[in-house]
């Protein structure tokens, strides 16, 4: 599944350093799993002494207005042991009306217990069948009739209802979201990934709607008068969470390259002209994956052609879901309108389709045994999310973007002492599991795969994946089977054996799966030239546990700079090891193109040499991804006090001439984090801001305020990130240019170029009044492109008009105009809009938290809002006021209380960091032309005072 959703990183809160919400909040945190119940507890688990093989699910009398249906299930099960008194399976919120069981060996009915032939356990979501006499091993057919509910709230998942308006009438549709354990809300089933069966679905729907959709194509249609029954071909062997269906008046665009390779994009009526980009890139991604993995998508249907449908949904609780044959997407991630969808959203369409298509092989064809191995299929899906989309369209530059999007966010997520290993299973702690699933499994897993690819080489990597898929097709995958596949691939490669005779690839893999990630410390002695490399865990704070990895090391030396080969020179599998290098002035740079998932710190002399090289005209001889790595590492080391702050800022000085997207991307979030730490001291804040503006002048001039026809993808992305940040921190050129564009839109109805909208709209509203807000709100309201609507939703929160802001926040709770999946985003946008609004928005949260919980979609969503506050509590007064409320509201907050306490602690730690370190940074910044010296002494007093208060 793939969600681009705003989920502030919880683990960072727990460790006491809140991460600022990244400028592009859709980037990380692919998925959001709402663990509303503890399904890993053994009582929820089924015993696998009964195994379903063929399941027929009939959904009848579908009534969208009343949100209900009746169903019947016929399942053939294999009983694997004798003397079985009961069969248990899952159900949730179904009304079971009749059950019968047939003995397939003699064709007779099996006598059920009387009374109470079956019992339902609503707490553990189970259905138990009881028999008069114990069953013996063999084959049985279970028939169950029931009545089901179509959930009215999409966040309830299962079989749910959404809506849209077309030709001024309200239209309902119903569809499914079963992952991870919601299939049981639509039909009784063995709802764990390890149970894989063949499903045959039939749906009876009102005649007024269009044909229904499910995993497979329609095999037969029956006219029943007012309704029509469609029966679908049997699926291949799949887990219940991959079953899907859809009932609506939606319309398809079908691209059939040959009749064996059908491909369709499906959406509500009225927006079919927005299908073409997804159709074009989706077909190409499928072709690329077919070729790379050596198993054809359309041939996976075990006797039937797999169709390849992609459905855009106005309401969808996740980002997308990889149901076999019928992928569901939130509309913004599938529909493309060249006039209204910006490049970031266009890239999302390509990457999310690649992610979901990647799951067809990793997840659907080969499924993990249990959720703790989720990283296996998610890692691959996230890897292909970038690389398959890259193959399909290299102009999107996704192979490079992978590094700043995934490697950097994995390193950031793992820097917390509470970060979880990839195979971690403790599902008891809901917030933690959410964090675990959202960041670690995706970004880290995919980054580990990329590291492995650079270690074993591209060809071996591909061959290993082919072995794994071929050997485990339609079965269950485990990490061990994956390691085997890699061993098999490298055993076929003599070159690798020669270079790394000792390498135990399973052990390398395992060392990264079981623990977080490391920092490599490189000490070089100039006089003799030797380098000593030491590894340890990297953390922003706290005591550092003893851990070891097998780290593929690649590096280059100043005298022979070469960033083209990422092939490791060694695997570091001891705490520390020496390597040779030439003596004299000859700095080293480790981790070429950041192909390894680790940070690198150096001795001071090596840093100084790198700093002066970066500040010379030779800067671009260091690969852009390594420049991005260096700024990102240095900024983290400044935070964790692993580098002298002045030295750190000396390294960063080259940003003054830097114009590259990747390098700035590695810097902006962290620079913003540091800037926030000055908020308690307006003068220090102003000084740091003016320092940042000085750093950015050159890149702003280089990019300009307008798009150019020959702009590359990274140039456009750079303009988006740079101008957005520059306007936010008060760059006067950016603001006046934006206002010009905004006024031209307002007065002359001249559309703002799509890639400039985010900062132009925001600046227009920030500098404007209620009328500007109203104009944008009306534009939002009449838009037919959801991605553009999200851009506007964000910009609307930039208003400084209190009435307008109140209107905005009220809409987020009570209006259909902000769909439920956008509500937490709306709240976060309000926090980010303007520094001046922060206290107002926090007060809104305090007064309305109960309504927020009810209308945003429950406690998990409220927790997201509370967590979002952490980065914005930046004065002592704000923290104490918030803390007071937290303790006063302990009962009302319920399960959110601990989250709120975490937020207070995190804000305290941030404030303390700011008080302790800002003077040193301020001193450096002053030498770079910012502000006065008189100020320093008053600042020192403030810092001392704060420390006192915090004790
Ligand atoms: C099913 O039928 C077989 C063959 O007649 C018989 O041996 C077995 O006991 C039956 N099972 C049950 C539970 O009645
Ligand atoms: C990946 O594997 C787990 C366990 O088999 C499965 O339940 C999950 O839904 C799969 N796919 C995902 C999360 O996309
Ligand atoms: C995670 O992997 C490590 C190394 O293989 C293993 O020791 C540990 O038991 C695993 N943890 C879980 C929860 O599977
Ligand atoms: C490497 O250098 C750092 C700082 O320059 C120093 O703290 C550390 O002890 C050195 N490590 C070794 C192994 O020489
Ligand atoms: C793009 O066009 C501008 C102006 O037309 C020109 O100055 C610039 O060199 C061009 N850049 C590239 C990469 O072709
Ligand atoms: Zn996924």
From TrEMBL:
<keyword id="KW-0479">Metal-binding</keyword>
<feature type="binding site">
    <location>
        <position position="378"/>
    </location>
    <ligand>
        <name>Zn(2+)</name>
    </ligand>
</feature>
<dbReference type="InterPro" id="IPR014782">
    <property type="entry name" value="Peptidase_M1_dom"/>
</dbReference>
<dbReference type="GO" id="GO:0070006">
    <property type="term" value="F:metalloaminopeptidase activity"/>
</dbReference>
<keyword id="KW-0449">Lipoprotein</keyword>
<keyword id="KW-0336">GPI-anchor</keyword>
<feature type="site" description="Transition state stabilizer">
    <location>
        <position position="442"/>
    </location>
</feature>
<keyword id="KW-0645">Protease</keyword>
<protein>
    <recommendedName>
        <fullName>Aminopeptidase</fullName>
        <ecNumber>3.4.11.-</ecNumber>
    </recommendedName>
</protein>
<dbReference type="InterPro" id="IPR042097">
    <property type="entry name" value="Aminopeptidase_N-like_N_sf"/>
</dbReference>
<dbReference type="Pfam" id="PF17900">
    <property type="entry name" value="Peptidase_M1_N"/>
</dbReference>
<dbReference type="InterPro" id="IPR045357">
    <property type="entry name" value="Aminopeptidase_N-like_N"/>
</dbReference>
<dbReference type="InterPro" id="IPR050344">
    <property type="entry name" value="Peptidase_M1_aminopeptidases"/>
</dbReference>
<feature type="signal peptide">
    <location>
        <begin position="1"/>
        <end position="20"/>
    </location>
</feature>
<keyword id="KW-0325">Glycoprotein</keyword>
<dbReference type="GO" id="GO:0042277">
    <property type="term" value="F:peptide binding"/>
</dbReference>
<dbReference type="InterPro" id="IPR001930">
    <property type="entry name" value="Peptidase_M1"/>
</dbReference>
<keyword id="KW-0812">Transmembrane</keyword>
<dbReference type="GO" id="GO:0006508">
    <property type="term" value="P:proteolysis"/>
</dbReference>
<feature type="domain" description="ERAP1-like C-terminal">
    <location>
        <begin position="587"/>
        <end position="888"/>
    </location>
</feature>
<dbReference type="InterPro" id="IPR027268">
    <property type="entry name" value="Peptidase_M4/M1_CTD_sf"/>
</dbReference>
<dbReference type="GO" id="GO:0005737">
    <property type="term" value="C:cytoplasm"/>
</dbReference>
<keyword id="KW-0378">Hydrolase</keyword>
<keyword id="KW-0862">Zinc</keyword>
<dbReference type="InterPro" id="IPR024571">
    <property type="entry name" value="ERAP1-like_C_dom"/>
</dbReference>
<feature type="active site" description="Proton acceptor">
    <location>
        <position position="356"/>
    </location>
</feature>
<keyword id="KW-0031">Aminopeptidase</keyword>
<comment type="similarity">
    <text>Belongs to the peptidase M1 family.</text>
</comment>
<dbReference type="GO" id="GO:0098552">
    <property type="term" value="C:side of membrane"/>
</dbReference>
<keyword id="KW-0732">Signal</keyword>
<feature type="binding site">
    <location>
        <position position="355"/>
    </location>
    <ligand>
        <name>Zn(2+)</name>
    </ligand>
</feature>
<dbReference type="GO" id="GO:0005615">
    <property type="term" value="C:extracellular space"/>
</dbReference>
<dbReference type="InterPro" id="IPR034016">
    <property type="entry name" value="M1_APN-typ"/>
</dbReference>
<feature type="transmembrane region" description="Helical">
    <location>
        <begin position="930"/>
        <end position="950"/>
    </location>
</feature>
<keyword id="KW-0482">Metalloprotease</keyword>
<dbReference type="GO" id="GO:0005886">
    <property type="term" value="C:plasma membrane"/>
</dbReference>
<dbReference type="GO" id="GO:0043171">
    <property type="term" value="P:peptide catabolic process"/>
</dbReference>
<keyword id="KW-0472">Membrane</keyword>
<keyword id="KW-1133">Transmembrane helix</keyword>
<feature type="domain" description="Peptidase M1 membrane alanine aminopeptidase">
    <location>
        <begin position="277"/>
        <end position="512"/>
    </location>
</feature>
<feature type="domain" description="Aminopeptidase N-like N-terminal">
    <location>
        <begin position="61"/>
        <end position="242"/>
    </location>
</feature>
<dbReference type="Pfam" id="PF11838">
    <property type="entry name" value="ERAP1_C"/>
</dbReference>
């Amino acid at each position: 599944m793939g969600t681009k959703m705003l989920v502030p990183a919880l683990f960072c809160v727990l460790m006491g350093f809140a991460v600022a919400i990244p400028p592009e909040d859709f980037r990380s945190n692919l998925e959001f799993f709402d663990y509303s119940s503890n399904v890993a507890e053994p009582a929820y688990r089924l015993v696998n002494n009964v195994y379903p093989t063929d399941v027929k699910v009939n959904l009848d009398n579908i009534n969208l207005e009343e949100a209900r249906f009746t169903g019947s299930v016929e399942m053939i099960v294999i009983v694997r042991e004798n003397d079985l008194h009961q069969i248990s399976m899952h159900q949730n919120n179904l009304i079971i009306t009749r059950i019968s069981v047939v003995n397939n060996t003699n064709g007779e009915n099996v006598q059920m217990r009387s009374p109470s032939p079956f019992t339902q356990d609503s707490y553990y979501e189970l259905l138990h069948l009881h028999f008069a006499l114990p069953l013996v091993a063999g084959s049985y057919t279970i028939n169950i009739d029931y009545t089901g509910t179509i959930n009215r709230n999409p966040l309830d998942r299962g079989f749910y209802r959404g809506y849209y308006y077309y030709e001024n009438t309200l239209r309902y549709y119903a569809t499914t979201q079963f992952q991870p354990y919601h299939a049981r809300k639509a039909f009784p089933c063995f709802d764990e990934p390890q149970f894989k069966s063949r499903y045959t679905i039939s749906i009876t729907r009102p005649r007024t709607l269009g044909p229904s959709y499910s995993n497979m194509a329609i095999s037969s249609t029956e006219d029943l008068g007012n309704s029509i029954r469609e029966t679908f071909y049997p699926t291949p062997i799949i887990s219940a969470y991959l079953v899907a269906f859809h009932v609506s008046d939606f319309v398809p665009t079908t691209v059939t390259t040959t009749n064996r390779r059908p491909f369709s994009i499906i959406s509500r009526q009225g927006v079919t002209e927005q299908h073409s980009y997804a159709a074009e890139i989706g077909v190409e991604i499928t072709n690329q994956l077919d070729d790379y993995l050596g198993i054809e998508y359309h041939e996976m249907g075990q006797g039937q052609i797999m169709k390849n449908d992609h459905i855009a949904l106005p309401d969808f609780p996740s980002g997308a879901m990889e149901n076999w044959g019928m992928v569901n997407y939130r509309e913004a991630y599938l529909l493309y309108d060249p006039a209204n969808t910006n490049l970031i959203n266009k890239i999302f369409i390509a990457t999310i389709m690649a992610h979901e298509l990647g799951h067809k092989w990793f997840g659907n064809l080969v499924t993990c045994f249990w959720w703790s191995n989720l990283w296996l299929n998610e890692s691959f899906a996230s890897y292909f999310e970038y690389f398959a989309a890259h193959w399909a369209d290299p102009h999107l530059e996704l192979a490079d973007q992978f590094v700043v999007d995934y490697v950097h966010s994995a390193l950031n997520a793992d820097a917390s002492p509470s970060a979880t290993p990839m195979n971690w299973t403790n599902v008891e702690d809901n917030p933690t599991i959410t964090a675990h699933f959202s960041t670690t499994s995706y970004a880290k897993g995919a980054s580990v795969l990329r590291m492995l690819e650079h270690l074993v080489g591209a060809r071996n990597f591909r061959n290993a994946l082919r072995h794994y898929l071929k050997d485990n097709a339609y079965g269950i995958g485990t990490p061990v089977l994956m390691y085997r596949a890699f061993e098999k691939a490298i055993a076929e490669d003599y070159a690798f054996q020669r270079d790394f005779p000792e390498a135990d690839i399973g052990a390398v893999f395992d060392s990264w799966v079981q623990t977080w990630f490391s920092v490599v410390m490189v000490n070089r002695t100039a006089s003799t030239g030797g380098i000593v490399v030491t590894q340890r865990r990297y953390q922003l704070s706290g005591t550092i546990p003893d851990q070891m990895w097998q780290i593929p090391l690649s590096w280059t030396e100043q005298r022979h700079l070469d960033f083209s080969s990422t092939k490791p020179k060694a695997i570091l599998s001891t705490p520390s090891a020496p390597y040779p290098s030439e003596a004299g002035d000859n700095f080293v740079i480790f981790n070429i193109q950041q192909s390894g998932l680790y940070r690198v710190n150096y001795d001071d002399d090596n840093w100084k040499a790198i700093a002066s090289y970066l500040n010379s005209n030779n800067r671009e001889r260091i690969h852009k991804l390594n420049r991005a790595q260096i700024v990102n590492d240095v900024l983290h080391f400044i935070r964790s006090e692993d580098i002298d702050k002045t030295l750190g800022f000396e390294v960063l000085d080259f940003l003054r001439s830097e114009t590259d997207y990747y390098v700035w991307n590695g810097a902006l979030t962290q620079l913003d984090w540091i800037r926030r730490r000055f908020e308690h001291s307006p003068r220090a804040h102003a000084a740091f801001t003016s320092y940042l503006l000085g750093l950015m002048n050159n890149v702003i001039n280089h990019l300009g305020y307008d798009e150019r026809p020959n702009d590359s993808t990274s140039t456009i992305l750079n303009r988006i990130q740079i101008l957005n940040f520059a306007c936010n921190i008060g760059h006067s050129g950016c603001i006046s240019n934006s206002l010009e564009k905004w006024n031209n839109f307002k007065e002359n109805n001249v559309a703002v170029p799509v890639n400039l909208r985010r900062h132009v709209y925001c600046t227009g509203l920030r500098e404007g009044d209620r009328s500007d807000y109203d104009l944008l709100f009306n534009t939002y309201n009449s838009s037919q492109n959801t991605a553009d609507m999200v851009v506007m939703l964000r910009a609307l929160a930039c208003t400084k008009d209190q009435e307008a802001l109140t209107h905005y926040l009220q809409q987020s709770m009570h209006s259909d105009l902000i769909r439920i999946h956008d509500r937490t985003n709306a709240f976060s946008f309000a926090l980010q809009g303007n520094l001046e609004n922060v206290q107002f928005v926090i007060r809104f949260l305090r007064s309305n938290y109960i309504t927020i919980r009810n209308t945003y979609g429950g406690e998990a969503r409220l927790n997201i809002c509370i967590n979002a506050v952490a980065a914005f509590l930046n004065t002592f007064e704000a923290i104490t006021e918030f803390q007071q409320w937290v303790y006063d509201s302990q009962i009302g907050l319920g399960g959110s209380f601990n989250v709120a306490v975490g937020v207070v602690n995190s804000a305290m730690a941030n404030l303390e960091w700011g008080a302790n370190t800002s003077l040193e940074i301020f001193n450096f910044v002053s030498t770079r032309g910012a502000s006065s010296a008189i100020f320093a002494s008053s600042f020192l007093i403030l810092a001392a005072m704060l420390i006192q208060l915090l004790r």
